[in-house]
Amino acid sequence: MRTDNRSSGDLARLSVNQETVRQLPLPELVEGLVTLGVPGLGLWRGPVREYGVEAAAKLVRDAGLTVTTLCRGGFFTASDPDERAAALADNRAAVDEAAGLGTGTLVLVSGGLPAGDRDIACARERVADAVAELAPYAEERGVRLAIEPLHPMYASDRCVVSTLAQALDIAERFPARQVGVVVDTYHLWWDDRAAEGIARAGAGGRIASFQLADWVTPLPEGVLLGRGQLGDGCVDLRGFRELVDAAGYTGAVEVEIFNPALWARDGAEVLAETAARYRRHVL
Amino acid sequence: MRTDNRSSGDLARLSVNQETVRQLPLPELVEGLVTLGVPGLGLWRGPVREYGVEAAAKLVRDAGLTVTTLCRGGFFTASDPDERAAALADNRAAVDEAAGLGTGTLVLVSGGLPAGDRDIACARERVADAVAELAPYAEERGVRLAIEPLHPMYASDRCVVSTLAQALDIAERFPARQVGVVVDTYHLWWDDRAAEGIARAGAGGRIASFQLADWVTPLPEGVLLGRGQLGDGCVDLRGFRELVDAAGYTGAVEVEIFNPALWARDGAEVLAETAARYRRHVL
User: Fold this and answer.
1) Disulfide-capable partner of B123 in A152, A188, B77, B178 (CB 3.0 to 4.6 Å)?
2) How many domains does chain B have?
3) How confident is the model over A178-192, as a mean pLDDT?
């Protein structure tokens, strides 16, 4: 099923994150992407480990696809020393998996506030400390850490890094070859400082990943699985793509949507729809 | 039931917003506050109009209480001219009601993006335009408009003004006697620029209201009714109170919590708990 994905024309930068079509087992996802001429995919640790890291790497490589990101490391805001050590060990494993998959980008979601903790500034510092411990290990294995700011609605339970400016404040303490940031439209669309942050990230060579999802309401309970298909919401997706382009980013444009309504449909149909929406709302 | 609320000691700045105990009819709310020695209350237009604006004003005045805010005006991001005119007319009515209640503060929630609209910067400008039309009318009636930044999770459907900096960027186009801002811990706690914004707001005499609620997860569907009782969440409430104090704010500290679990309980008990939590977590 190998095709020449290098010549896939207007989809040449498109990548689809595995979780967008989690109903598809990895071989079917790979086949679907090849059929459409989509050259990239983003992977998640859980399903990859289930399939086997080496087997997944071979499957993707044989199909001529590129793994644009591995999601995800992070969750290292624990103040308890044992929990912190465990988180760092798990992150080193994530780096190894990223290297095994041949991707240079490990996405980091920093983690929220420990129970009873009300000091978010301090938690952000613990993120920076953990990145300092992890970055050289990752660089030795050819993997760059990509700090992802998550929407402020996740600040307490998933990610104390909420804005691109905050992510850059941490990333810029390290060489750009070691630590970058993720620009994700779902998390940043509301922020009037996002454009300034993208320019700053681009100037420093820090845009490690550009991810797309649309914003739709009402948000579901827990607010995790409410991302919209491209074009279904209020995000100026093309405007964001133009901003990252203007900032000098030439990498993959990865669609990452968590939405049970998409998961309930035929996976190949969702992939085709995603490519069509990408053409219409992003290019 | 009149008591001397001016001498209520450590509760001298406390105000409880009506929606915190929406199970209480206005006379019971007033009685409960007087019993506890809480001198202030924040009112909502709906229940006040049901009770009658003049009757409500008399009830509150006779009890020696102060109406710290009226919630709310705003929702003027419509681009359709008729909708926009209707919103402005409704806001003038809200100003009249505020004046009738004897409060100097009308809280404005700006409104979200109209259906199909992806230009949030433009919507924010329409907010500023509406404030320009409304501010002189309000000033003539002794009412100051208070722009409330709402958490970014409401940016698309309720309030395109998401940060204190954005609220101040609009407010500062007008005299401070006409337009101020609301500092609400629930909406701002995650923002590392909140302290800077509070200092800026205080320096300009712009803090029109200081409101408290705690942040708890998981967020409920629609994310409207998930605010936590003081002390139940991760917000450094005392830290925020110290920031507004340091910025020169000497006004009311208003507790505004929307939470069905509080509404299901005995209202007087919730009021007493709120006063106790205020003593423990805010003072």
Assistant:
1) B77
2) 1
3) 98
